[in-house]
Automatic annotation (TrEMBL), chain A:
GO terms for cellular component: glycine cleavage complex; mitochondrion. The glycine cleavage system catalyzes the degradation of glycine. The H protein shuttles the methylamine group of glycine from the P protein to the T protein. It comes from the Eukaryota. This is Glycine cleavage system H protein. Binds 1 lipoyl cofactor covalently. Its cofactor is (R)-lipoate. Belongs to the GcvH family. Keywords: Lipoyl, Mitochondrion, Transit peptide. Residues 53-135 form the Lipoyl-binding domain. It comes from Ambrosia artemisiifolia. InterPro entries: 2-oxoA_DH_lipoyl-BS, Biotin_lipoyl, GCV_H, GCV_H/Fam206, GCV_H_sub, Single_hybrid_motif.
From TrEMBL, chain B:
Transmembrane segments: none annotated. InterPro entries: aa-tRNA-synth_II/BPL/LPL, BPL_LPL_catalytic, Octanoyltransferase, Octanoyltransferase_CS. It comes from Ambrosia artemisiifolia (Common ragweed). Keywords: Acyltransferase, Transferase. This is lipoyl(octanoyl) transferase.
């Protein structure tokens, strides 16, 4: 099932992920990109599960709403994360927000570039702005996360409600 | 984690406040649909306001660490409720602090005019956003613990709303025209910052908050670059009122009475806080916070 999803959505994913980040227009809200093949939490983090490692970051929707990220607080390698619990924080406009882990596991790598260049989260939320890599302790947790379509709808509903 | 939608036109909650024509001034940005009324017949306005627990210690000078631990424990309790799909009431803590410097998550030591290991005052590294600031007696500090799901899930909106509270207080209680400065969160009168804001959000629950200089001794600010802003100063309500050419007879009260300034600012802060966030305060005993059972 997962493989079929990958195969059929690769074209979509390429189209979306290779698109240049739309220039922010103050007059209209630009449509945030959502990548197929990733899983999403309702607190706006994404997970990319490849083999035994899952990469985690915050979504384009999240970074767009935060504005310029000026600081990223990340945990140490070797620590652990628990599903739906905070593992780090991002600061923008004098407000620091928790970032929650969509899954549980052991942290195997942390993106050290973010301490020098926190803005990578804004410019490349799904690639260079990745935050941590985790060895999932309970891969079934991934199944309860949202897929791209579901997450897109979730964002639209959340924005419409406020 | 946040949502925003042209926040500049949604400075206070979209829920309408019943309106009459108003004497109340607005802040710099247009909020045309959200005037409030001072009509005595205000029973219509009382509907739809969520209740908010208020721990009001505005005359007390409380150690920073104590108020910080109250906030954290209230937030932890709320998070459990939120995770269980129920939620409790919002809370507001109002205090003055003993002299202290606090840092935010990204705070740079470059904004300290002293060695961080050799601070002239107690120094706390906190989890809020924003740079270094000073808290001390004569400054009213508000710590709202709000669930933004009941307001607007938008951090930018929340910061603007906190600024709105102070801007209204300064005008309605002190006839001071305050403003925002784009890119510099806080409330300014001219080039002096009267109120600093720095918050933390976890699962849409806010904590930390704002600090308004009423009759604060501003000299400890000279040991830091407040909020990392080099070319602007810090002010207080007392200094601005004293420095004005307004004769004291028309200002309505005498400059020397710091306590009275604090009382007036406090009353106005609570009132404007309720208006902006559409909340009704329920005063709680402080002993609840200090109880070991919490």
């Amino acid at each position: 099932m997962a493989l079929r999803m990958w195969a059929s959505s690769t074209a979509n994913a390429l189209r979306l992920s290779s698109a240049t980040r739309p220039h922010f227009s103050p007059l209209s809200r630009c449509f945030s990109s959502v990548l197929d093949g990733l899983k999403y939490a309702n607190s706006h983090e994404w997970v990319k599960h490849e083999g035994s490692v899952a990469t985690i970051g915050i979504t384009d929707h999240a970074q767009d709403h935060l504005g310029e990220v000026v600081f990223v607080d990340l945990p140490e390698t070797g620590g652990s994360v628990t599903k739906a619990t905070g593992f780090g924080a991002v600061e923008s406009v004098k407000a620091t927000s928790d970032v929650n882990s969509p899954i549980s596991g052991e942290i195997v790598e942390v993106n050290s570039k973010l301490s020098e260049t926190p803005g990578l989260i804004n410019s490349s939320p799904y690639e260079d702005g990745w935050m941590i890599k985790v060895k999932p302790s309970n891969p079934s947790e991934l199944e309860s996360l949202m897929g791209a379509k579901e997450y897109t709808k979730f964002c639209e509903e959340e924005d419409a409600a406020h | 984690m946040t949502s925003s939608f042209n926040y500049s036109t949604h400075l206070i909650p979209p829920r309408p406040i019943t309106t009459q024509s108003t004497q109340r001034p607005t802040s710099q940005r247009p909020t045309a649909s959200h005037h409030t009324t001072t009509e005595p017949n205000s029973s219509l306005q009382q509907t739809n306001k969520r209740r908010c627990k208020c721990y009001d210690m505005y005359k007390q000078v409380v150690p920073f660490a104590e108020a910080w631990s109250w906030q954290k424990s209230i937030v932890e309790e709320r998070k459990l409720l939120v995770d269980g799909n129920e939620d409790g009431l919002d809370s507001l803590i109002v205090v003055q602090h003993q002299p202290v410097y606090t840092l935010g998550t990204a705070s740079s030591e470059k904004n300290l005019n002293f060695d961080i290991k050799d601070s002239p005052l107690p120094l706390y590294q906190t989890e809020r956003g924003g740079e270094v600031t000073y808290h001390g007696p004569g400054q009213l500090v508000l710590y709202p613990i709000l669930n933004l799901r009941f307001q607007k899930m938008d951090l930018h909106w929340y910061m603007r709303a906190l600024e709105e509270v102070v801007i209204r207080v300064l005008f309605s209680a002190f006839s001071l025209k305050a403003s925002r400065v784009e890119g510099l969160t806080g409330v300014w009168v001219g080039d002096k910052k009267l109120a600093a804001i720095g918050i933390r959000v976890s699962k849409w629950l806010t904590y930390h908050g704002l600090a308004l200089n009423v009759s604060t001794d501003l000299s400890p600010f000279s040991q830091i670059i407040p909020c990392g802003i080099k070319d602007r100063g810090v002010g207080s309500i007392k200094d601005l009122l004293r420095g004005s050419n307004r004769p004291s007879s028309t200002s309505g009260y005498h400059d020397e009475d710091d306590g009275k300034l604090i009382d007036i600012a406090h009353e106005s802060l609570l009132k404007e806080f309720c208006e902006v966030f559409q909340l009704e305060l329920c005063h709680q005993s402080i002993s609840i916070l200090r109880s070991p059972d919490r």
